[in-house]
Amino acid sequence: MYNSAQKLLAEFIGTYLFVLIGAGAICTDQAMRASGGSGMGLIGIALAHGIAISVLITSLGHISGAHFNPAVTIGFWVTRKMGTFLSLSYWAAQLLGSLLAAFTLAHLLPEAIWRPVALGTPDLTDFSRLHGILLEGVMTFFLVFVVFATAVDPKGAFNKVAGFAIGLSIFSDILLGGPFTGASMNPARSFGPAFVAHHWTNHGVYWAGPLLGGVIAAWVYDRFLLKKD
Description:
mainly alpha
């Protein structure tokens, strides 16, 4: 059994690495385009996020549950699988991990590379805020639903393919929503880069949508699909 400090450290490290790789991939894509290349494109960025979360869940899931996302944590809270204090502590660890990742990228990469993409901060492209909230909510519903189906349900596949399945859900979501909202599905993923790059445009979309989607997905799975002993 792992104690709270170990769980929070796992959440901090996992979120740090996820944001570092995910936001870093967007900066790398920008660097490739700036040098005259074609960049890695949407598929490359989606793969970076999906593979990173798969590896991190497989590595740290046995310690903290590998949330790395306030939208996942609020799903655990609303279904009473986690207390209020620990849930807020998870949020703090996730946001701090994201902040450190953004500061790391800002200090490692030339500003001329990361500034045009605001350190990978997601934003809306010809999309209203309401539509952005709805799309982020639907994509996060898919993500959190998969988390509950594979990693929470005792009959799920946590020890086998949960990390892979969750990674594929993020990959699929980015293919769908990347061109429109940036497909964050994660307030922590948005917060760190936005804070360091000072890019707060439409930032509320990336809290409202994912938290709403996470709550609904967790409640639906827990209420209607999870078999109670």
